[in-house]
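ASSEMBLY PREDICTION REQUEST
Request ID: AP-0331
Submitted by: J.K., bench scientist
Number of chains: four
Total residues: 1524
Priority: normal
Notes: Please return the full assembly, not individual chains.
Input sequences:
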Amino acid sequence: MSLAEEFQGVRNHSLKICENLITEDFSLQASEEVSPPKWHLAHTTWFFEQFILVPNDPEYEVKHPQFNFLFNSYYNSLGARTARNHRGLMSRPSVSEVRSYRAYVDEAMKGLIQKNDSGLNQLVILGMNHEQQHQELLLTDLKYNLWFNPLNPRVMDIGEYANEPQSNWISMKEGVYQIGYKGDSFCYDNELNSHKVYIHDFAIASALVTNGEYLEFMNDGGYDDPKFWHDEGWAWIKDQEVKAPLYWEKQDDEWFYYTLEGQKVIDKSAALAHVNFYEASAFANWKGLRLPTEFEWEVAQDQFEWGKRWEWTNSAYLPYPGFTVAPGAIGEYNGKFMVNQMVLRGASVATSPNHSRPTYRNFFHPNYRWQFMGIRLAKSL
Amino acid sequence: MSLAEEFQGVRNHSLKICENLITEDFSLQASEEVSPPKWHLAHTTWFFEQFILVPNDPEYEVKHPQFNFLFNSYYNSLGARTARNHRGLMSRPSVSEVRSYRAYVDEAMKGLIQKNDSGLNQLVILGMNHEQQHQELLLTDLKYNLWFNPLNPRVMDIGEYANEPQSNWISMKEGVYQIGYKGDSFCYDNELNSHKVYIHDFAIASALVTNGEYLEFMNDGGYDDPKFWHDEGWAWIKDQEVKAPLYWEKQDDEWFYYTLEGQKVIDKSAALAHVNFYEASAFANWKGLRLPTEFEWEVAQDQFEWGKRWEWTNSAYLPYPGFTVAPGAIGEYNGKFMVNQMVLRGASVATSPNHSRPTYRNFFHPNYRWQFMGIRLAKSL
Amino acid sequence: MSLAEEFQGVRNHSLKICENLITEDFSLQASEEVSPPKWHLAHTTWFFEQFILVPNDPEYEVKHPQFNFLFNSYYNSLGARTARNHRGLMSRPSVSEVRSYRAYVDEAMKGLIQKNDSGLNQLVILGMNHEQQHQELLLTDLKYNLWFNPLNPRVMDIGEYANEPQSNWISMKEGVYQIGYKGDSFCYDNELNSHKVYIHDFAIASALVTNGEYLEFMNDGGYDDPKFWHDEGWAWIKDQEVKAPLYWEKQDDEWFYYTLEGQKVIDKSAALAHVNFYEASAFANWKGLRLPTEFEWEVAQDQFEWGKRWEWTNSAYLPYPGFTVAPGAIGEYNGKFMVNQMVLRGASVATSPNHSRPTYRNFFHPNYRWQFMGIRLAKSL
Amino acid sequence: MSLAEEFQGVRNHSLKICENLITEDFSLQASEEVSPPKWHLAHTTWFFEQFILVPNDPEYEVKHPQFNFLFNSYYNSLGARTARNHRGLMSRPSVSEVRSYRAYVDEAMKGLIQKNDSGLNQLVILGMNHEQQHQELLLTDLKYNLWFNPLNPRVMDIGEYANEPQSNWISMKEGVYQIGYKGDSFCYDNELNSHKVYIHDFAIASALVTNGEYLEFMNDGGYDDPKFWHDEGWAWIKDQEVKAPLYWEKQDDEWFYYTLEGQKVIDKSAALAHVNFYEASAFANWKGLRLPTEFEWEVAQDQFEWGKRWEWTNSAYLPYPGFTVAPGAIGEYNGKFMVNQMVLRGASVATSPNHSRPTYRNFFHPNYRWQFMGIRLAKSL
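STATUS: Completed
Returned structure:
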């Protein structure tokens, strides 16, 4: 498949995700952390326009002079932008104008890809990976936004909850291991450099924690005993009056959760999702176990199945030895977020096809829950 | 015109206001105080359904069991409701479903009006007046919501700024005056009872304060000198960094304002709008004058033109002697808001036809500015 | 008694209030609305220094150049000042230095009073009245601050709760009444001008509402039914989880309150205190009655006993006809607070001797409870 | 020196720090993060009472039944406690009562130490180290609290700013290093277990960053260019309007800082203090360098002088391999804080004698500045 074809495939997938939405759904923004579908569709397009077309195609004319203001996400070096919590207020341009914007940029991009001598390929691939990241957010933000609707709308099926197999312990030996990406294909700067890490004896679970296991923790008073919790986690559950994972709701003694297929009775044998780092840690403490480090996860990952849940690790999101920030706006992609976030490894049911690998580092603040975040347990030996 | 025809006329007017909107505009809610157009369209419909159809038409079936939850505004006696700041998050029901809801209720209402022996007329007229109040909010909320859009959308012309005539002083004599509504037509409970008020000698301006006059106050440092301001007003302008009326923006030494026709250079000879009570009071103090009381306004109003701006008075919103709260949900209409609000008198360019009279009492918190609020000066003699 | 003697009497009374305090108590500030005893002692002294000594005594040297910054309360025209919520952080000057400051200013003031030809008397009397106002706050702030201490300290007895007599209705006739101060002694500017008000037939209770009557309201679900409450009051009790007056605490089915004598079982026959305007209004609504206006209270007050509680009225704090603001800093005393506050009439157990009269207008935001605020009921006839 | 003598030495040092304070200073609490001197004196005493005397001395009687409530800091397993931001409101017990409490517990402790067969020694030593930690906080909290006083009080000299020597680069070779404490003396649980870490080639500066170097960063627009900053750091400086380290103030083009000796002109050749992790990182980025990891710092520390400043590392505060939480309340000492904090290494001018070692891990949220936090630069080779 040619790069232009791959490009168009990624672009089409974003629209595919939205195929069941009504026009009104495209503007939903229920909190500052999530973005409306229309914004995701426009912002990923803007990324190609600003980072590739404008600097490299002298004949390219920007679609609209204010789209740079409207659809910049966080690139300070590219100027002022819409306040993050106002993204849902941009009723204009309309959904149909944003679709036109996409088509317009797609044509220009394919023209540029075909006439360029591969010097831009790396940047095009970055843009495609960027869009794939937003495809996951598009889905998870949508779920979060629709959850506020008392009508419990059903919009699509992505197989959120499937049976999780029986778990067993995979043991790994102490020693120096190689960590980080070292192939020739695409990776993010935060996966570099490939470097050595000393790891001590440990074991890691072959399966994820299930809803049923987490329910045992809840029924055993897990949310009522501070000894399982980080101090901040305890403050968070008390302040927010949290008693269960996100989207869970108890009705007449039965637990339900909201899914993109509508509200359902929880499936005890499926992998748990929508817990944050505090909850993941508290659950592990209650079990007398712990979360793996991101390094342990990476060196053991070829011995277990993964890909349903982003899995919390006990590693903070920090630069690898020799990490350097790229010059210009692209340099704002990863490095500036390396504080106060925890690393998640793996991929989830919402991750786009071909957008995962063993060295991929996802990261979120420890209180976030709206991604398909799950738990895999570990222990020191 | 029959009551059914009047009813349909009021109902049509709500849709007429929205005729230039695109589907995406119908969900905008830029702050907790304003509501989306779709919500106004649905809530005014719900009012007829809940207060008239459900209790009085045994054959009526509610359109949807959850619309009572979705479209209740603040009637505690009618049960739980959507959080006020979540009104913009209800992407479903769609705009077209809300239009169907309106048509469905209209039919049922007209049927009920025709077969009833006028016992419900008073309630129907209250519902029509309620909808007219929301028509004004629909317009002013829309202006506020669209103002957040950097594209400065133009959606309609309601003649926001027209020339204001020269002002002169109208003097009134001390004595006992009759205040409040005493006719046979519709009025709100807060205009009753008609009662006596002792008023001292005063004069009131025949014209409203203009943009040009307010600009003199601004240029004279009006926003920088605490001696003109209430203590709370001063704290408010410092905290919010306010330097001008709402919607005003300075570009290269020239002042512009946003209107529903798009952004324009300010017209100095037009009546000022979008100042709050603190600003109105500070301006009056700067002039060595004051705002009128609502009683002074009422007894002098037949001697000047009014209807362009809601005019701030220096009267707090309080019950008239002998005021009583109606039983049931209708009793929540006015009385429970009688604290911490100031009375405005008159009507504005956004007021619906036939929805104003000399005894009408509008009221807002002293910091609100998004209505077409203006200033008429007064002085004691 | 000479003015100098009266002056010294007022000054001594402030120290008398503090006689049982330990040094540590003098710095307490539990919220922005209350001030530490040391601050009250210093601020009332600063008032005499800045408004009388500095402008009128050419030989007077200010005690310390930064005391104007430290002890200004809210006079914008006198320059910058300590942030209100930082008053408790001024460990220096010490309590003993503030006592020296008081003695130093007292000497200078008495010298000035004796040598001046009465031209300053009005200002001296204003300063004395200002200090008497702070004496009340000193007591009520102290109660509030000490209430945070789990040791329930006992510091003095001011007879907070005494038996309230049986109540009966006092009826008054419709007509024009004279309102406001018109004698030759001291009054505040907000009591002027004496003017005419038209009052309709009404009756007012001869006694205050008791703790026992309020407990009936509580036991009858008064805090659970929105129909008794202003919309803002309902939001306030839900947000703050209020179930009882300030200082009340339930232990094993019995209600206690904190007093300056320590914690006690409530006395059902004593006059209720520490309710805000929302609670006072809700109680009145529950009774099918209402609060009096400040005008009704004033014209009826010579027919009942008052002086134990500040009594909430249903009048907003607004200027009387012809009210004018004095030039300079003294003009900041009252006028700038005339928005969003309700008038209380009477005096309380914490009011200093000789600091009450029938035309006195106290005022507080409707949510405040820490003064000895009570309820007297009224009804229209 | 016997353990009892060492114990008394530590206890005396706390009082020594307070020797220049006046009674009013002992209650200061300017923000939730800092505590009043009186609280530190009482809380360290409570620690011995609750963790050693109550469980181990059957004859010991607690000084006061409510001191457990008043002086618990964050031990959930020991019951309810004073809200952290209310510590400054406890005017009672008085300073002198807290001194008595200290003497009472000291006597009981010395009795217990002398009669016990060393089984408790480890716990006594933990209590002494706990008190030494609070001695540092006592000093730094005091500085913070007094800084709010416009009188710039001078209370003691601890040599905050001394000349920093010229810096040069110390290079270290790649390989596996041993990290963590492995001696026989006291260490905290977070320094265990001693374990292997793989470190890559790096160099570390022999000296700390000076005020003069940081001033160059400021003058070069360091606070105005987002490219040097973490995204959260940039948001923090914009939100807080930060332009300089804590305690710095510009007067007529000259920079001053507040010290415990009063306000002084900054000394350009002294080691910088009072910057947070965001500022430390931004400074390093501006230099084209980086902060060291805590492991790099530990393996290189014997080749440079340290002890003036707590030094920010780029390591998040996480458990070492095999870390386990002790059972009971002592287990709340460290583990529950292992999220969202960064490690600082070294010691500062405020650290108590004998309270530092190369493996000591201090930790704070990345936005905190009130400790004597400084910067040591590093680079990868």
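REVIEWER COMMENTS: Chain D has two domains: 3-147, 169-380.
SIGN-OFF: pending second reviewer
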